[in-house]
Specification:
17 helices; Serine Threonine Protein Phosphatase 5, Tetratricopeptide repeat; globular; Rossmann fold; DNA Cyclobutane Dipyrimidine Photolyase, subunit A, domain 3; single chain; mainly alpha; 3 domains; 379 residues; 6% strand
Length: 379
């Protein structure tokens, strides 16, 4: 499986999926037929995560092919990422507490053989070992497989979910603070208290087309327990009434300026902000860092083709720039760096996020009832 670091290739991938495979998505989406047989799913998440494609662009393309009723499951899956981000924006301490817990666990487990076997793909479970290797090689896993993987990690291998979430973030091309952290919390049973996800042998066999045998799992484990609870915080995601002609910072989640809500605004210069491992709490694999770098180069070239003055800079160089806005990077490593270095930015928020995040105060079941309203606002 290859993810080419290019908006043009991402658009091609979107078009091909909508034209050839979207019609069967609802029926086949839960099957993992293997890394070389991914036509049943879109594989667009690495591009959506980095803003190469945006959710509304993907949804609009799908609705030009099929009705909302036919498309509903696909549209819900696209907007899960939007929902998770909004949920975390209203409870940012979930992320900061996770990093504190992770740091403590790293020291505790650095020589733990069970943990080392897991991240090296040397457990007694063939399926798990293959997924570890697939993750490292392809920087991607099927969503259903991510659920199985996390469940096995937590309940069969009995390892802390925080370390598993870190392992994913180190390798996944589509990894982000919200979807990854909250997804692992959900499997463990602490995102929705008392409700966990247990992988089962029959389910893995069925949805992998019997590719694996001898799947011995703990299928009766109780959910994990957390004494922490997180209250909603009141946040405003307001843009200035008039966006002045200043410099603009864009981070790794908004790497297609030409499709943003601010594409018609005039900016003096656009700075594409790179964040290397020295300024990250979670150190990313070289392949993932390279992917991000190539996506930034692709954005820079597209802007230059439009005669827009732009430059890729390291996040540590922001302090040398004056008079700027920033496209909001969302809760995660980039925002952490800005806050810890007391860098104050006037953020610009996506219209989609401004609307959708107000419905992220409860569970996804509540959120999805607003999806038709969200879509109709932009169509």
């Amino acid at each position: 499986m290859i993810f080419e670091a290019s908006r043009a290739k991402a658009v091609d991938k979107l078009n091909q999926f909508v034209e050839n495979n979207l019609s069967e998505y609802s029926k086949l989406r839960n099957f993992d037929f293997g890394p070389d047989k991914r036509s049943n799913i879109s594989c667009l998440s690495p591009y959506i995560t980095h803003g190469i494609l945006n959710e509304l662009e993907v949804i609009d393309k799908s609705l030009k092919k099929f009705s909302f009723a036919k498309n509903e499951k696909f549209i819900q899956e696209v907007l899960w990422r939007t929902y998770w981000k909004g949920w975390l924006e209203l409870r940012p301490n979930v992320w900061s507490d996770y990093l504190i817990e992770l740091n403590n666990l790293r020291n505790e487990f650095k020589d733990n053989q069970n943990y080392l076997n897991a991240i090296e793909g040397k457990t007694d479970l063939e399926c798990f070992n293959q997924w570890v290797n697939e993750l490292k090689e392809n920087n991607y896993l099927h969503n259903h497989t991510r659920m199985w993987f996390a469940s096995i990690w937590i309940f069969t291998l009995e390892l802390p979910w925080q370390l598993g979430a870190e392992f994913f973030l180190q390798h996944l091309y589509d990894g982000d603070a919200a979807s990854n952290t909250l997804g692992w919390r959900w499997v463990a049973g602490i995102q929705t208290q008392g409700k966990h996800y247990l992988a089962s042998e029959w389910n893995i066999k069925k949805f992998t087309n019997n590719r694996f045998q001898n799947i011995k799992l703990n299928e009766n484990a109780p959910p994990k327990v957390s004494e922490k609870s997180y209250s909603l915080i009141k946040r405003e995601f307001n843009n200035p009434q008039n966006v002045e002609e200043k410099n603009l910072l864009i981070f790794e989640n908004n790497l297609s300026f030409e499709i943003t809500d601010f594409k018609e605004n005039k900016f003096k210069k656009i700075y594409i902000v790179s964040n290397k491992n020295e300024n990250r709490s979670i150190k990313l694999s070289e392949k993932l860092l390279k992917f991000k770098s190539l996506l930034m180069d692709d954005q820079r070239q597209r802007l230059k083709d439009k005669s827009i003055d732009c430059e890729v800079i390291d996040i540590s160089e922001i302090k040398n720039i004056e008079n700027y806005y920033g496209l909001y990077p969302a809760v995660g490593e980039n925002l952490d760096y800005l806050n810890s270095n007391n860098i104050r930015i006037n953020f610009l928020y996506r219209n989609l996020d401004q609307l959708a995040w107000q419905y992220c105060n409860k569970g996804f079941f509540n959120f999805k009832s607003y999806i038709p309203k969200i879509i109709s606002t932009f169509n």
